[in-house]
Design a protein that fits this description.
Residues 1-20 form the signal peptide. InterPro entries: AB_hydrolase_fold, Lipase_secreted. Keywords: Signal. This is Serine aminopeptidase S33 domain-containing protein. The longest helix has 18 residues, at 194-211. The protein has a 10-stranded mixed sheet, with helices on both faces. It is built from 16 helices and 10 strands. It folds into 2 domains: 2-65 and 284-321, no CATH class; 71-258 and 340-448, Rossmann fold, CATH 3.40.50. Helix content is 35%, strand content 16%. The protein is α/β, with parallel strands linked by helices. The structure holds 2-acetamido-2-deoxy-beta-D-glucopyranose (8 copies). One 2-acetamido-2-deoxy-beta-D-glucopyranose binds at residues 121, 123, 125, 276.
Length: 465
């Protein structure tokens, strides 16, 4: 079975100017979009009427959700200061300290800022990236400066909003907010190119700190979950070199580790579409390319791509989208070599969690990376929590008490490592690696629990009493 969730985002991310922010923005009670597909678009993939209809509704929904219209019409993302061509990675380029949240879907008693800062792509090219900061009303522990979490967004801002008491700087990732380089060419999002995302997440913290030196702690924790989840792990590895001041550790939830292994294990063949300099024709069949063209044209977010993809598979279940043997190609191999996380040096402590019923990214791959890392670097503080019977997105909810405590320990007691019920596995002896399984003793039987996020937040203009 194909589950394309993470992959879909990648396709969109790569090809559209659409920001993550746009994907997540609120919508009015009425559609503010009359989007329709052309006959050519429908025919190019032989989509059924039902799929075509669904796709139109999805795009109308997404466009209606845009808080400030498309990024290409928003001067905040389009007008970069002159120093964007030269400023070093980690520096702040632009700041909107107060963002009017009246058209955003955020929880009450949060405030919002937007920024653009400099990051680096996979090969080290400087690239402007946008981020937003969500501010708590009352900082953790009542402190003057809010403790900072550098968050890599997943499917929605939900978990970030639940980080009560923390300020959350959430990068859009390169290519997903700011659409163009200062000299005009398009910024391609490097999906699952974990070290590129690692730059984005570390530099977001550095730039946020320089924007608000008094309102944010210098210390920060990196937290990422869901699609593209190797980013946080990559950040922990890159911190060896980048040495961003104030780094306290990393939480990597349900991460992508090795893209080749992932594709081989799950058949998520499109996962490598993001290779920045990829010749698409080498990777995709004619049909795969037609799907990509459609996705590019409609500028849709994940649900739109999911709809287009499932409609394409339904229209012709036997037609391949990826060329035979691509996964064993030079490109796939070099991409995996550049981006695989695990088995390498990193700056701890790091908390990794993964659910055993993850239908998108198999837990076994994360277990393997954990083992490789512990075997090579037993002295590094690495804690792995395995959530039994839990699916991809649900895992960050299932483990919430664990990671909230872990976060708090980083900032408050700095009680590194101690205090939890982890057991050291024999394999790692007296090392700082721990693995623990939760879910043996759930309050209700495991199969009673809701397995997936099956709703989206949306905007309610007049509020609710
Ligand atoms: C799909 O819609 C077109 C145009 O409205 C119509 O001609 C065609 O019969 C429909 N096909 C199906 C399978 O319903
Ligand atoms: C509808 O979209 C247009 C174009 O993006 C925008 O100018 C307008 O403000 C939007 N209207 C509402 C009610 O959101
Ligand atoms: C870049 O220029 C903008 C606008 O003048 C300024 O606000 C910002 O601080 C500058 N950033 C750097 C790193 O020089
Ligand atoms: C935010 O924008 C809304 C709608 O334009 C406006 O009514 C409100 O006064 C603004 N809020 C602030 C604090 O500026
Ligand atoms: C590095 O990657 C960027 C895109 O991130 C690309 O535009 C540039 O040509 C690449 N440079 C080299 C030297 O490969
Ligand atoms: C990837 O790394 C492996 C192991 O170091 C090496 O054998 C292989 O040639 C590399 N692939 C590419 C395309 O460089
Ligand atoms: C990624 O996984 C593939 C397939 O299992 C393996 O051959 C390759 O060595 C791995 N690459 C890295 C960098 O670990
Ligand atoms: C987890 O997956 C296994 C194997 O597919 C299945 O038997 C079990 O019911 C699932 N558990 C839950 C809680 O969904």
């Amino acid at each position: 079975m194909f589950t394309f969730f993470g992959v879909l985002i990648s396709v969109v991310s790569t090809l559209a100017y659409v920001t993550a922010a746009e994907c997540l923005q609120p919508h009015d009670n009425t559609w503010n979009s009359s989007f329709t597909l052309t006959e050519d678009q429908i025919n190019s993939l032989g989509l059924s009427n039902e799929t075509a209809h669904n796709l139109e509704v999805v795009i109308r929904f997404e466009q209606t959700n845009w808080a400030t219209g498309s990024v290409i019409n928003d001067p905040f993302y389009m007008d970069l200061p002159a120093n964007a061509t030269t400023a070093p990675a980690g520096s702040l380029l632009k700041l909107e300290a107060f963002t009017n949240t009246s058209t955003y879907t955020i929880a009450p008693s949060l405030a919002l800022s937007r920024s653009i800062y400099q990051s680096k792509t996979l090969n080290g090219t400087i690239v402007p990236v946008s981020a937003y900061i969500l501010w708590p009303y009352h900082a953790l522990g009542g402190a003057k400066a809010a403790p900072l979490v550098s968050w890599g967004h997943g499917t929605a801002g939900l978990v970030a909003e639940s980080l009560a008491g923390y300020a959350v700087v959430a990068t859009d990732y390169a290519g997903l907010g700011v659409p163009f380089y200062p000299y005009g060419s398009r910024i391609t999002h490097q999906y699952v190119a974990s070290p590129a995302g690692g730059n984005d997440i570390l530099y977001a913290a550095q730039a946020a700190r320089s924007a608000f030196p008094d309102q944010l702690t210098e210390e920060f924790v990196v937290y990422e979950h869901s699609q593209g989840g190797g980013t946080a792990w990559a950040a922990a590895q890159q911190q060896i070199e980048l040495q961003i001041p104030g780094y306290l550790g990393t939480i990597a939830g349900s991460p992508v580790t090795n893209t080749t292994m992932l594709v081989k294990t799950t058949g998520q063949a499109l996962a490598m579409i993001i290779w920045p300099d990829m010749n698409i024709a080498e990777m995709l069949t004619t049909r795969g390319q037609a799907l990509l063209t459609l996705v590019e044209e409609i500028q849709g977010c994940s649900v739109a791509v999911n709809t287009a993809l499932s409609g394409t598979l339904e229209a012709d279940p036997t037609a391949a989208l990826m060329k035979d043997g691509f996964v064993d190609s030079y490109w796939a191999s070099s991409f995996a070599n550049l981006t695989t996380v695990g088995g390498q040096h990193f700056v701890g402590p790091m908390l990794v969690f993964h659910g055993t019923n993850d239908t998108i990214l198999p837990e076994a791959l994360t277990a393997l990376s954990f083992k490789q890392t512990c075997a090579s670097f037993p002295e590094r503080e690495l804690r792995y929590v395995v959530a039994q019977g839990v699916d991809h997105v649900a895992t960050s909810y299932a483990t919430q008490q664990i990671w909230l405590k872990w976060l708090e320990d980083r900032f408050i007691s700095k009680n590194k490592g101690g205090g939890h019920a982890a057991r050291s596995t024999e394999e790692f002896g007296a090392s700082s690696c721990t693995i623990e399984t939760i879910g043996d003793d759930t309050v209700r039987p495991l199969d009673n629990y809701q397995s997936a996020l099956n709703w989206h937040l949306s905007y309610a203009p007049n509020g609710l009493l």
